[in-house]
Amino acid sequence: MEKNIPTSVSYALQPSYWRYVTMAILVGIACYVAQVFFTLPDISALRATNPASTALMDMRAAETQQKGIIKRRIQFWVPYEQISPHLKYAVLAAQDATFFSRKGSDLGKLLNYVDMNGKEKELTNQGGITLTQQLAKNLYSSSSENQFFKLREFLIVRQLETELSKHRIFEIYLNVIEWGDGIWGAEAAARMYFRTPALKLNREQAALLAAAITNSRLPANPSKRLLRRQQFILERMDNVELP
After folding, report:
1. Which residue windows are transmembrane per the record (predicted)?
2. C-alpha span between 119 and 232 (Å, rounded)
3. Which letter, b or e, does each residue of 74-84 get, where b requires 16 or more Cβ atoms within 10 Å of its Cβ?
4. Are 116 and 225 in contact (CB under 8 A)?
5. Which of 15, 115, 118, 170 is deepest in the core (most CB within 10 A)?
6. Burial, 87: exposed, middle or buried (Cβ in 10 Å; 0-12, 13-18, 19+)?
7. Nearest to 152 by CA among 35, 48, 30, 10
């Protein structure tokens, strides 16, 4: 004779099932975080050693190689003191005006971006990713949107700010910016576009280079939009603090 089994018994294993699912998720997260930590670069090496290449440089080289093009990399590393103060002011005005004065969280910068009007957002990067974030992306993760790289990038930013001085971060940044096809860093850009060393750049030249950062190049005949960015940066340069 068959016995009727109460339907409630069929749910008896559910708590154990969800415990296993939760454990599996937690283990997966732990493995993910561990993988991120184990792949972090040695930031401390950058205190005294200049990077031989960057993730963005390697990505650009791979892109041109796929097209069957071999493009020479033009880069001349120069110390911080051999870069025009005008370019430093211009880059900060265009990319991260509070770089030297900001400490700790970047939340204030984000809120400042929300309050900015459309013209400011169009003409500068203020409130966007910080200068240190840009450097982390260029050095180690290029333009990837993969969430693994996003977490890794965040941790690298914290490492950069902990291991390196502001001046060293800025020095590396100015030497690895992409300023055209195969043109990397302030010295190469100054020589290619203005036939002068980075130390000799004047205000107008510096502002034009800073305006071209988001375009990764400086055309022979700057567009009206690029010239508007240059003028806007010139107007903001005097408000930037540079230790």
Report:
1. 20-40
2. 10
3. bbbbbeeeebb
4. no
5. 170
6. buried
7. 35
Q: Which residue has the higher pLDDT, 129 or 148?
A: 129
Identify any residues that bridge with 183 across adjacent strands, giving them in sequence order: 74
Residues β-bridged to residue 184: 75, 178
pLDDT bracket for residue 52 (50, 70, 90): very high
Q: What are phi and psi of 183, to 5 degrees?
A: -105, 115
Report which secondary-structure segment, H or E, holds 75. strand 74-75
Q: What CA–CA distances, in Å, run from 89 to 55, 97, 162, 234?
A: 26, 8, 23, 9
What is the predicted pLDDT for the residue at 67? 85
CATH class of 45-237: mainly alpha
Nearest CA among 26, 232, 206 for reference residue 117: 232
The structural domains of the chain, with segments of one domain joined by +, span: 45-237
Q: Hey, is 49 helix, strand or coil?
A: coil
Enter the pTM of the model. 0.78
